[in-house]
Design brief:
Blueprint lengths: L14 H11 L9 H14 L19 H14 L8 H14 L1 H15 L3 H9 L7 H16 L11 H20 L3 H4 L7 E2 L12 H8 L1 E2 H4 L5 H11 L1 H9 L6 H17 L11 H17 L7 H13 L10 H17 L8 H21 L8 H18 L10 H12 L9 H11 L13
Antiparallel strand pairs: 1-2
Helix pairs in contact: 1-3, 1-8, 4-14, 5-12, 5-13, 5-16, 5-17, 5-19, 7-8, 8-10, 12-14, 12-15, 16-17, 19-21
């Protein structure tokens, strides 16, 4: 960590992406005649679907039907943003990719029960998520859009190979963030952050011609810049980055599966490279777990000082838990997502997310006994088999259910592109065996997940 958290970090966003969107949209008509802007956003979204492989980015050109001004802005943005930073280390990135593959289904469990919940803790950030289409009512969309970035980044060669898609997908997300900021503020965030700018962007009624969509909702929402800073600002972006790196590694430690320090450094480094492509300033990143912990805690403390009303965090947390509960077969197991999230995120975050409600004594006892027994068995078995881990088995079984039913199901909102679906399907189908587990443990996992009956789909489904 090379900087301190200050008020200025909430008033800084992403000049490259913000200026790109400002070039594309131009000024908004305060009286509601903004048909050209809505059409421009639709055009941009259409062009984003072409950004699939890293190797196609250097020579990418917009489609012939795209207006020249929009085409030029997108092409300039791609050329300016596609390169990895000079400090990127390919060996560390390759190691992080290997770790992600080795942890496989466990990675999905920690995404649902650690990274995403912690992402909702910051009030301002939760407020943006709430404004972006009432996401507590569309949790599937949030989960799948996160996976659409996570998998391309962490699959082999995602950031470094021409055939990978991590850079392309991250640049999409970066431009989407800029669009969200521009819609909420109705202009370039750099203008809204100036001292002479109005302190608040007032809410607007839905006007004729304004789309009844996420974009229209964001435009009408309103925002208090003086109180809440810019939406999706540097501090919030850096905090979100830590939920996918530091929080993930912290969760492994809490499960008794902590990695060696050099592996933790490689994982943090890889996500810092992603952060660079995402437009996050280097000074807002952490290189070690100690730095990450200090930065993460300071960001949470800073965020909690400024409440965002109405507080949407409990609704977001409840929606995420309910989405997971639906996929668990037995009633006694349905509270386990809440209990595991409490364990991984701690009491303060659980309180923020409203996850402190009553859970049946039987479920709590079963969870506590399971966690204690697993730790005891792991500690004993590792005296004879150093790589043995019942924790891995349990979290892999849970992660398999969530991966199949929430990420790979093409009947849910936000259909993953066929190219990405094929890549993810090929990767996850290779997760049917835990290379660090004995043969009998893999056989037990196959039986518990019912893989012979529920193959992970790839490609277009009928």
């Amino acid at each position: 960590m090379r900087d301190t958290i200050t008020r200025s970090s909430t008033l800084r966003a992403d000049p490259l992406a913000d200026d790109t969107i400002a070039r594309i949209l131009g000024p908004w008509d305060k009286h509601g005649d903004n048909a050209a802007q809505w059409q421009a956003i639709a055009t941009v979204n259409d062009q984003l679907t072409q950004w699939q492989a890293n190797g196609a980015l250097p020579g990418w050109r917009a489609s012939e039907h795209v207006p020249p001004a929009i085409a030029a802005a997108l092409e300039d943005y791609i050329q300016a943003g596609l390169r990895l930073p000079d400090w990127a280390e390919p060996a560390k990135i390759a190691r992080a990719e290997a770790l992600f593959m080795d942890m496989s289904m466990l990675s999905c469990t920690l995404l649902f029960c650690a990274s995403l919940p912690e992402c909702y803790v910051i009030p301002d950030l939760a407020g943006v998520l709430h404004a972006a289409g009432q996401l507590e009512q569309h949790t599937d969309y949030r989960i799948r859009s996160t996976a659409a970035m996570l998998f391309p980044v962490m699959m082999h060669g995602g950031l470094t190979d021409a055939s990978g898609g991590g850079v392309a997908q991250t640049l999409k997300v970066r431009l989407i963030h800029a669009t969200i900021r521009h819609l909420i503020l109705r202009g370039n965030p750099s203008d809204a952050a100036r001292p002479e700018a109005p302190a608040q962007v007032p809410p607007l009624p839905m006007l004729a011609g304004q789309p009844r969509s996420m974009q229209g909702t964001l435009y009408a929402h309103g925002w208090n810049v003086e109180r809440d800073g810019l939406p999706c600002n540097q501090e919030e972006l850096a905090y979100t980055l830590l939920t996918f790196s530091y929080v993930f590694l912290r969760a492994l430690r809490k499960l008794g599966l902590g990695l060696p320090a050099e592996d933790e450094h490689a994982y943090l480094h890889t996500w810092n490279v992603v952060g660079h492509v995402l437009g996050i300033e280097r000074t807002m990143m952490a290189d070690t777990m100690e730095q990450a912990e200090a930065l993460f805690n300071r960001m949470q403390a800073s965020g909690r000082v400024h409440p965002f009303l109405p507080d949407s965090r409990p609704a977001l947390g409840a929606a995420l838990m309910q989405t997971m509960e639906k996929e668990l077969p037995l009633r006694i197991l349905k509270p386990f997502p809440v209990l595991l999230t409490r364990h991984l995120c701690g009491p303060a975050a659980s309180q923020d997310l409203g996850l402190t409600g009553r859970v049946s004594l039987l479920s709590r006892a079963l969870f506590a006994i399971s966690m204690g027994t697993i730790r005891l068995i792991d500690a004993t078995a590792r005296l004879f088999w150093p790589q043995f881990s019942l924790s891995r088995l349990v979290t892999r079984v849970v992660g398999y259910q969530f991966t199949v039913k929430l990420l790979m199901d093409q009947t849910r909102p936000l259909k993953l592109p066929d190219a990405l679906l094929n890549q993810v399907g090929a990767v996850t189908s290779g997760w049917d065996q835990d290379r660090q587990a004995p043969r009998w443990v893999n056989a037990l996992e196959t039986r518990l997940t019912g893989r012979r009956k529920h193959l992970i789909p790839t490609g277009p489904q009928p």
